[in-house]
Amino acid sequence: MSNQRFVMKCGGSTLAALPDAFFEDLRKLQASGTQPVIVHGGGPAINETLGKLGIESRFLNGLRVTDEATLDVVEMVLAGRINKEIVRKLQQNGARSIGLSGTDGKLIEAKPVANAHEVGLVGDVTGVNASLVEGIIELGYLPVIAPIGIDEAGQRYNINADTAAGAVASELGVDTMIVVTDVPGIMRTVNGEKVVLPRVTFADIEEMIKSEEIYGGMIPKVRAAMCCLHGNVKEVLIVDGSADRVLSRAVTDGGIGTRIVKE
Ligand SMILES: Nc1ncnc2c1ncn2[C@@H]1O[C@H](COP(=O)(O)OP(=O)(O)O)[C@@H](O)[C@H]1O
Ligand SMILES: CC(=O)N[C@@H](CCC(=O)OP(=O)(O)O)C(=O)O
């Protein structure tokens, strides 16, 4: 990895499975002068809490249909529970960290998505307060960001965590975004066997979305990856959070998971 700062998206699918070694690696990276920034999801935990409250979870093209009552739960689970769990884990493993929601310091500014009439209070990112994130890093803390956005009028929005991470990566001007999830990379069936693709291009992605070999939660990841690779981000890696020493391997040689490249 050529630049000392990177953005890492931790998916809700894998958060509970992340071993202590994962957080230890973050401490080591922080101690060696590397500057990780975490943006996290928490879809399964939101579903669980909504279920307990008798609220049905509905998705349209991977985006949660979000009304005010749902958004209360999304914010409570992401900015309250999950964000603080990650901060605690980091601290237990010796990393200094601060958790924020995208509404704090207008970290993530947002506007309604184009199909807001269908999905409700879901946002697209219009701006990222990069100087706030940089200030936290300069103080020696690892920022942990929950993907809630805010607009000029103070309205909150639910933002897909892959989308939010891609926007933060672009705005911070990092070289690398690492997407940590529950599969070892982008997979495809070859001769009846599932294999992990070490490298995929934009053209491969479009073809695999069309053929439905990329579906569901992988779609926002590849879309966010393509979006930030169109800007200054140089590489996006998709890796499995439960793999042994996944972070040190991703950061040192990148020889793990799937690397997304333009061509
Ligand atoms: N081609 C693919 N290769 C690997 N996983 C895929 C692919 N297409 C879709 N997926 C799905 O994407 C999921 C990861 O997305 P998601 O469940 O939203 O995770 P996260 O919470 O980490 O964002 C995988 O568990 C898998 O079911
Ligand atoms: C708009 C939208 O769908 N927001 C997501 C935010 C959390 C998320 O993206 O979590 P994962 O990364 O674990 O999927 C949601 O409500 O589930």
Automatic annotation (TrEMBL):
Protein name: Acetylglutamate kinase
Site keyed Transition state stabilizer: positions: K9, K221
Matches recorded under Pfam families: AA_kinase
InterPro entries documented for this protein: AceGlu_kinase-like_sf, AcgluKinase_fam, ArgB, Asp/Glu/Uridylate_kinase, Glu/AcGlu_kinase
UniProt family annotation: Belongs to the acetylglutamate kinase family. ArgB subfamily.
Pathway given in the UniProt record: Amino-acid biosynthesis; L-arginine biosynthesis; N(2)-acetyl-L-ornithine from L-glutamate: step 2/4
GO biological process annotation, one example: L-arginine biosynthetic process via ornithine
Gene3D superfamilies per record: Acetylglutamate kinase-like
An MF annotation (GO) of this entry: acetylglutamate kinase activity
Entry function: Catalyzes the ATP-dependent phosphorylation of N-acetyl-L-glutamate.
Highest taxon, organism lineage: Bacteria
Catalyzed reaction equations: N-acetyl-L-glutamate + ATP = N-acetyl-L-glutamyl 5-phosphate + ADP
Binding site for substrate: G42, G43, R64, N158
Entry GO CC: cytoplasm
Keyword Hydrolase among UniProt keywords: no
HAMAP family according to UniProt: ArgB
EC number assigned by the record: 2.7.2.8
Top EC category: transferase
Subcellular location: Cytoplasm
This protein's UniProt keywords: Amino-acid biosynthesis, Arginine biosynthesis, ATP-binding, Cytoplasm, Kinase, Nucleotide-binding, Transferase
Stretches assigned to the Aspartate/glutamate/uridylate kinase domain: 5-240
